[in-house]
Amino acid sequence: MTATVAIIGRPNVGKSTLFNRLVGKRLALVDDQPGVTRDRRSGDARLGDLRFRIVDTAGLEEASASSLEGRMRAQTEEAIREADVVLFLVDARAGLMPLDEHFANLLRRNSTPVILAANKAEGKAGEGGFYEAFTLGLGEPIPMSAEHGEGLADLYDALRPHVEAAEEEAAAASAEGEARTDIDVEEAEEDEEVGTRERPLRVAIVGRPNAGKSTMINYMLGEDRLLTGPEAGITRDSISVDWEWNDHHLKVFDTAGIRRKARVQEKLEKLSVADALRAIKFAEVVVVTLDATISFEKQDLQIIELCAREGRAIVIAVNKWDLIEDREEAWQHLKDAQARYLNQLRGVEIVTMSGQTGAGIDRLMKAVFRAYEMWNRRISTSALNRWLDGVLVHHPPPAVAGRRVRLRYMTQPKTRPPHFVVFCSRPEQLPESYTRYLINGIRERFDVMGTPIRLSYRKGDNPYASKKKR
């Protein structure tokens, strides 16, 4: 177990910039506008030979507990309680603010060790704020610049004893646990083989704003890990959390709500949507979350189409099902909409659920693993060509200019999603309708339902093209 370091401070002091530098990636959204970060985001950090877990938090603000800012502060306070050491950032260029002094008092009442850092201290403009930080009574501040990478050597020296202490404590606890364990050698070897943790399944939860994505993930985890509320568009960053379900390890990504492109005007929302789209590209299964009270809006269909273009396995979760009174009529409406709008994803599973009460979570996860299995489905070449022979007998491709397009051979070179290649003559003359016919035939014959299918054509080489005519 590695040490956990929480970065805290008032808004716009450079917490996310430092987080990105320590993890070596642009994971957290960064903008000049204060209050960009709202949820806790964690990552694996590296500083020299130190390895630790870093947590980026929302800016600390004084607000009532029921307000959005108050709920953001509660998330930050939870990160402080879970951390082995707190990295308290102040803005050296702006100087100390009343909020800095207020939260310094809060940290002094907490038992978690604190490291004080004066960020943006590059140049003469930061000297006054750096010396002013001594008055907080949290020890000597570290002058640094997260944006330019200055002061990281001093930060390394300050973090090293805390990281090593956490590692020694974890090693001691592990040694104590091994000493208390008394099991047979053969049984231990068997348990090690069975209990080996598989690579986590990456699942992205996407949808329109206020569809209940974060509420659903909080119920899965059994804690208020993600910021929720009645306001639309609370989530900004794509936050990944680890979750165990029936001995399966998953990495679940909560994403920002995706609105219509014409409505996205602000730079910050564009960054949030881009982060959500990146989560879709790196996911294996995408759960498209709909609001049961207004399901299958145009934007829902566009999100589903986007996931299909990216080739992800798809499951549709109809959230807030507990708010529906006439469920039989609502279910019939869902099935009609599926048949009308999702013909390109025939057979995609629709699961009704409630993220608030947890009803339907197990059914949703079973559908996720079925979709993942379909996404990895591989069909033998012999079975494909026996099916293709039958298709050519009953429904051959249409003739173009009096000449038939000959389909000679079919194979599946790829999965994730299933990709089929047909070797034929004059593929450019095959109509799109015949391609859809072949795809639908593959779905029905080999039970590849609810996942995108790729079908491409390849023209065979003419063995006589290089020979000269006599």
Written description of the protein model:
The protein is α/β, with parallel strands linked by helices and 470 residues long. Helices cover 37% and strands 20% of the residues. The chain has a six-stranded mixed beta sheet with strand order 2-3-1-4-5-6. A six-stranded mixed beta sheet has the order 8-9-7-10-11-12, sandwiched between helices. Strands 13-14-15 form a three-stranded mixed beta sheet. A hairpin with a 4-residue loop joins strand 13 (407-414) and strand 14 (419-424).
What is the strand arrangement across the widest sheet?
A: 2-3-1-4-5-6
Q: Biggest sheet: strands, sense, closure? A: 6 strands, mixed
SSE order: EHEEHEHEHEHHEHEEHEHEHEHHEEHE
Number of helices: 13
- Structural class by sheet pairing and helices: alpha/beta
The best one-word shape is elongated
Whole-Å distance between the termini? 78 Å
The overall pLDDT, averaged over residues, is: 87
Rounded radius of gyration (Å): 28 Å
Strand content: 15-25%
Unreliable segments of 5+ consecutive residues? 180-197
Care to count the β-strands? 15
Features:
20% strand, alpha/beta
Q: What's a quick, concise take on this entry?
A:
With 470 residues, the chain is α/β, with parallel strands linked by helices. It is built from 13 helices and 15 strands.
How are the elements arranged and paired?
Layout: E1 4-8, H1 15-23, E2 41-47, E3 50-56, H2 68-82, E4 85-91, H3 98-108, E5 114-119, H4 127-132, E6 142-143, H5 152-180, H6 185-194, E7 201-207, H7 213-221, E8 239-245, E9 248-254, H8 267-282, E10 285-291, H9 298-309, E11 313-319, H10 327-341, E12 350-352, H11 361-375, H12 381-394, E13 407-414, E14 419-424, H13 432-446, E15 454-459
